[in-house]
Amino acid sequence: MVLKSQVLLCREKMRMTGSRHRVVIVGGGFGGINVTRALTGADADVTVVDRTNHHLFQPLLYQVAAGILPEGLIAPALRNVIRKQANARTLLASVEDLDVPGRIVSAVAPDGRPLALPYDTLVVASGAADAYFGHEEWAEFAPGLKTLEDARHLRSHILSAFEMAELAATPAEQAQYLTFVVIGAGPTGVELVGQLAELAHQVLPRDYRSAVPAEAKILLVEAGPAVLSAFHPKLQRYTQRRLEEMGVDVRLNTAAIAMSHDSITVRGPEREEQIPARTKIWAAGVQASPLAGILAEVTGAGTDRAGRIAVLPDCSLPGHPEIFAVGDMISLNQLPGVAQPAIQQGKYVGKLIRARLRDTAAAKPFRYRDKGNMATIGHLSAVTDSSGLRFTGVIGYTMWGFVHVLYLIDWGNRIATMYTWARALTFTKNRAHRVITFEQARYELGQHSGEGKIPGGL
Ligand SMILES: Cc1cc2nc3c(=O)[nH]c(=O)nc-3n(C[C@H](O)[C@H](O)[C@H](O)COP(=O)(O)OP(=O)(O)OC[C@H]3O[C@@H](n4cnc5c(N)ncnc54)[C@H](O)[C@@H]3O)c2cc1C
Description:
It is a single chain. By secondary structure, this protein is of the alpha/beta class. The chain has 14 helices and 23 strands. Residues about 1-15 and about 450-458 have low confidence and may be disordered. It has helices at about 1-15, 30-40, 60-65, 70-75, 80, 150-165, 170-175, 185-205, 235-245, 290-300, 340-355, 395-405, 410-425, 440-445, and strands at about 20-25, 45-50, 90, 95-100, 105-110, 115-120, 120-125, 130, 180-185, 215-220, 250, 255-260, 265, 270-275, 280, 285-290, 310, 315, 320-325, 330, 375-380, 380-385, 390. Helix 6 (about 150-165) packs antiparallel against helix 7. Flavin-adenine dinucleotide binds next to helix 2, strand 2, helix 3, strand 4 and helix 8.
């Protein structure tokens, strides 16, 4: 009863705040922020609702996990990002449900208070989550990398493993702590093993006395026949060769079949093997955010195997021209779940909403401009492929660095990122963000041991 009256009160307050067209955007990632920006100056009140208070630049998340970049550089506060946009505001809340006939977004504030956000136009851009292909229990043993919290935990977990290796009582225990297995050889998996190899083989050896980080085993396990399956075979071969030169054990045609807190079992072309390893990282699959399923249910739209919702060519939902979905959570023209489709769809939908507000002619269907693929492997080595122009090594790395810095938000973050890279990767060859505490290490070791969570984590 109390909850219901709070919802009604909130709904009323929201209604009273403005009589202009109300656009609610769920998610302030690549898709959502580009819709928001495209609506700058439009005759509409724009509300961005996100579970986090920041716009996360996921492509550099692995560098936070590896202790290279501080998190603030890749996650500027949404509030600050839209500060100059007078018609937009942002709310920290989790969207839980959608009332399509009533045109209300139901969300929950961090203190549990329900919020009802009325809309005239709704854009859902809530991204994707890790998919464990029916083995949800593996999430406990092999966490993924999607959010800033994931990156912080991963960093703490990796550093805790090296600390425990220093304290280990037997060589077998030490080896268990110094074995790192990444499952999935897409760009995220490749970037992660590259960083683990640099950390273990180049950065940490001089800092340890008992443990020998250089002896760390770093495995990349991939069920398919090649690393970076979406890239040209020439770039796949280069990547595999470079990783092997960096000391990574690349296992192709090999699938994870079982896991526990201290081991992983893999099935390769010739045999099954149980590998003792305290650190397993999941980079093998994604599925659409649960909001895609809710949207599909309430609108009758279809979903694909990854749970992505099928949208019309203008990114709206069938029978609901007032609802759009963009980015990783949609399936449209078989576009990949990477940043460019989300960015371009966001801009497109923002422009389309503006055109509708001005009552101008119907927009053309969304057309994707393919800007190519890129992935970094390690220091001074990356692969890029754009319109058939393929680069590897230092040239690829320079192009990768340039594009990633360019897409960061805010000049301050761009300059600070370049400075941090120069310091960490070129001059000191150190990783400055290696801070953990006893409590964090206990939490990480307890978290993936099945012994229950130990309070005092991040
Ligand atoms: C580790 C990693 C590395 C990557 N590297 C690259 C790369 O090198 N190149 C590339 O092109 N792409 C890369 N990608 C993919 C790229 O980041 C995504 O394709 C892109 O972020 C998709 O944009 P989006 O707006 O759909 O979702 P996101 O950017 O994920 O944004 C979704 C937003 O919705 C919010 N949200 C979710 N659920 C709710 C809810 N219920 N209520 C409120 N808010 C919610 C989230 O907090 C988030 O802010 C990478 C992804 C990851 C995870």
